[in-house]
Amino acid sequence: MIGALLVVFLASAPAMSAPAKGDRQVASTAPQGRANRQAGDLSPAEVVGMLDAYALVQAQETLQLNDAQYGTFVGRLKTLQETRRKNQRARNQLVQELRQLTAPQVTALDEPAVRDRLKALRDLDDRSAADLRRAYDSLDEVLDLRQQARFRIFEESLERRKMDLLMRARQRAARRGGTQ
Fold first, then answer.
1. Cα(74)–Cα(82) distance, rounded to whole angstroms?
2. Where are the domains of the chain?
3. Which of 23, 44, 76, 86 lies most in the core, judged by the most C-beta atoms within 10 Å?
């Protein structure tokens, strides 16, 4: 079921950025927070939730987690996912600041500010690596050696699958866009 939802989501992902003509959702029938979006649109939080749920179900199956492992694994996987997101948001913010400081229209480069942002980015990269290492170590405490290895393989496979589905969804959207 979650796999099917993920496919539906990824197939509709291009629709999230390109509004369909004349296809407005009625506010009175829309779920809270979705009143101003079109039918089929998902918020980033909804997308993240779907992908996290899909990853959890697939991980449980792939790793063959027993009941004793499952509850602890869920919490620690969520911690790992949130650690990644938090660090990526912080990194994106710093890169955006660098982009603004070095934009082509900036005539006088503020060298101290650029150096400060570059140092902050290096420091963040170091902290992020340590945070991820701790999150993985915590998750590994729940898993046996085979499951640890299978989890790393699972993560790579899941990322490839997400990218593949996204690319196929974009191709379908492009084909539909070309025939309208």
1. 12
2. 2-179
3. 76
